[in-house]
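Honest question from a wet-lab person: if I give you the sequences of every part of a complex, can you actually get the arrangement of the whole thing, not just the pieces? Trying it with mine:
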Amino acid sequence: DAGITQSPRHKVTETGTPVTLRCHQTENHRYMYWYRQDPGHGLRLIHYSYGVKDTDKGEVSDGYSVSRSKTEDFLLTLESATSSQTSVYFCAISEQGTGSGEKLFFGSGTQLSVL
Amino acid sequence: DQQVKQNSPSLSVQEGRISILNCDYTNSMFDYFLWYKKYPAEGPTFLISISSIKDKNEDGRFTVFLNKSAKHLSLHIVPSQPGDSAVYFCAASASEGNTPLVFGKGTRLSVIA
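Yes, you can. This is the full assembly:
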């Protein structure tokens, strides 16, 4: 299994509070991604990173920011959590990006509930 | 607009029979297609892939077929086993621009013993 650790695994928070989710990898892969999974929507890309300090937006980036100060860590921040951000969040990694058909390796997910 | 569509939210199959999961895409730039399997409370795991230069790829009980002209792919599982019960996601990417994977909404497969 790819060395990907997501923390926390579960979190309950209140509307309006800031939340940071962490993804840590031990594979030294260049690319890291944040997806969210919701019933009826599948997996949707929030943000991704193609190197330290290099990030780009995905399909559902509004309300989220990311940071990558080291190869191994990719942080997802909800500046002011809303109930619509209740979801399961998955971090994924790939060595050279998925455009060449390379597969993603996923973490175990973080269940976030915003009350 | 959905670029990758899985129009069947669920599928129920008897053990030992064939499971066929379908996926359609709209972006003609997609040239790699992957299937992921997801169990509850776990992350998705890679199952099988195919590039647009092929029309079939086989790995044990799993075969993926690609029909580029119809922008359609399918995953065949033969024979189906109870342990195959999971959500299956179809995903696609384009080599131009090294785009991230785009996923469909998933199909929940139930294999009944």
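Two things worth pointing out. Chain B has a mean pLDDT of 95. The longest strand of chain B covers residues 86-93.
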